[in-house]
Amino acid sequence: MLSYRHGYHAGNFADVLKHIILVELLDYLTLKEKPFDYIDSHAGAGWHKLNSEQANKTSEYATGIGRLDADDFPELEQYFSLLYPDRKTTGKVQKLSRYPGSPAIAKHYLRHRDRGWLFEIHPTDYAALHKLMAGDTQMRTFGEDGLQGMMGRLPPPSKRGLVLIDPSYEIKSDYQRVTEQLIRAYHKFATGIYALWYPVVDRERINRLERQLIGAGIRRMQLFELGLQSDTTERGMTSAGMIVINPPWTLFNKMQPLLPKLAEKLAPETGVYRLEVLAGEDAAPPRPRQRRNTR
């Protein structure tokens, strides 16, 4: 199915969580001079206009990035600097007119010897992505299935890498396919950093995904979740999460105070968050699935 277009959802609360973590991972990789490879399995168009017909049809950014003030989050200076590049020089924050996708964020961090591999199967979004990256010798774009494409790039030439897996989950079988491919990728390139995004629409599907990843023998794995309300049996995404394999040692400590703060700003009465060490030295018995934000 090719009906999903991320332009309808750009800048929503799920994007906020995903891109905050992506910035942290990319920033960590640039601390060493050694080059790295960035692989994006579902890259999208690259940039999204928030005044477009797509964005205005759902206005999801209004309950996402639209509720956050950069001045309230000095710990997210790098994330907000990508959104408001003129803020430091002018001292002013203008109304946000467009929002960066993961390829645009990665492009900002890639250095001379780093490489990016961007996969997008939707023909319209791929055309926009390919145009955006035209002439960029570091970023290569592919209009093909990203889960298959990433396997062909592992292990990367640099032997250092970040793989972002961000499917739409339009088809229910996507959950199982993503899990199986991630496990295969890990066993092929066990030292890489993997970031898997998922929506919370049906909690049992996420529980199953977690159990399978834990049972695969992955040594280090952390989970971060953020939502506008608790789980519900009604239709629609209530929360979104990121599972990070081989996370930087700084990530959990950064997200631990940040998630409740974000939940409070995004949904003061109903916001929820969750963070867990799924595998590693600090892994603990399962805790309550969500923590309600309290005022």
Task: Please tell me about this protein's structure.
The protein is of the alpha/beta class and 295 residues long. It has one domain (6-292): Rossmann fold (3-Layer(aba) Sandwich), CATH 3.40.50.150. The chain is built from 10 helices and 11 strands. It has helices spanning 13-29, 53-58, 77-83, 87-90, 102-109, 123-132, 146-151, 174-188, 203-215, 251-266, and strands at residues 37-40, 47-49, 98-100, 115-119, 139-142, 161-165, 193-200, 221-227, 239-245, 272-279, 291-292. The strands form 2 sheets. A 9-stranded mixed beta sheet has the order 5-4-1-6-7-9-8-10-11, with helices on both faces. The protein has a two-stranded antiparallel ribbon with strand order 2-3. Helix 1 (13-29) runs parallel beside helix 5 and helix 8 (174-188) runs parallel beside helix 9 (203-215). It is globular and about 50 Å long. The N and C termini lie far apart (42 Å). The relative contact order is 0.15.
Largest sheet: 9 strands, mixed
How much strand content do the residues show? 15-25%
How many helical elements? 10
Through-space gap between termini: 42 Å
Q: Superfamily at the CATH H level? A: Vaccinia Virus protein VP39
Low-confidence stretches: none
State the share of residues found in helices, binned by percent. Answer: 25-40%
**Which class of secondary structure composition applies to the elements?**
alpha/beta
Round the Cα radius of gyration to an integer and report it. 18 Å
Q: What is the H/E order?
A: HEEHHHEHEHEHEHEHEEHEE
Average pLDDT: 89
> What's the CATH class label?
Alpha Beta
Strand segment count:
11
CATH topology: Rossmann fold
Based on CA inertia axes, which overall geometry fits? globular
